[in-house]
Amino acid sequence: MAGSRTFTVLLAAAVVTAGLTGTALATPPGIPSETTARSELAALTVKADGSLTGYSRDKFPHWIDQGGSCNTREVVLKRDGTNVVTGSDCAPTSGRWYSPYDGATWTAASDVDIDHVVPLADAWRTGASSWTTAQRQAYANDLSDPQLIAVTDNVNQEKGDASPDEWKPPLTSYWCTYAEMWIAVKYRWKLTVNSAEKAALTDMLDRC
């Protein structure tokens, strides 16, 4: 029986690998190791979330021009996709995008959202309300940290502005990476975490 189970697991892995052949996994920059993520999580200030009073997505200007006729969304679509072809305006005309949140692959850019790993509203509640507009713009268009990722649009909409204690990617196999990204962004931008959020992140890191 043990041999049968092992064969089944290996076969499933082979099927998944075959399905991903030729399709890049969206990988934002700056994802820390599990050890680094645990250290950064321990360094974050634990505090109850603040109010959403005064919040507006307009206070986080995006998607801004990144040069070469490309805005931030288009840069991430090119980075996270495979065989992406763009027009003169930098908008993708073809390509493939694999969403690590749910394992779906898309061939139309319109089916793909660029997710703010730590949502703008969550950032507002945990420190960004006191930032300048320039700081919020930098945050909303951050290409240097694991803050932006191309994912299935419906999944991104389901997530909304939820923190990890309220929403996690459908694929549990991605929970470790998601937690590492979330923690890195909060650490880089000096945002706070609440106790339920920290507990959820710790649990997700235990899956690494």
TrEMBL record:
KW Phosphoprotein (keyword) present: no
Signal sequence extent: 1-26
Keywords for this protein: Signal
Alphabetized InterPro entries for the sequence: GmrSD_C (IPR011089)
Pfam families in alphabetical order: GmrSD_C
Domain GmrSD restriction endonucleases C-terminal: residue ranges: 109-203
PANTHER family: AMP-DEPENDENT SYNTHETASE_LIGASE DOMAIN-CONTAINING PROTEIN-RELATED, SECRETED PROTEIN
Protein name, as recorded: GmrSD restriction endonucleases C-terminal domain-containing protein
Native organism: Amycolatopsis sacchari
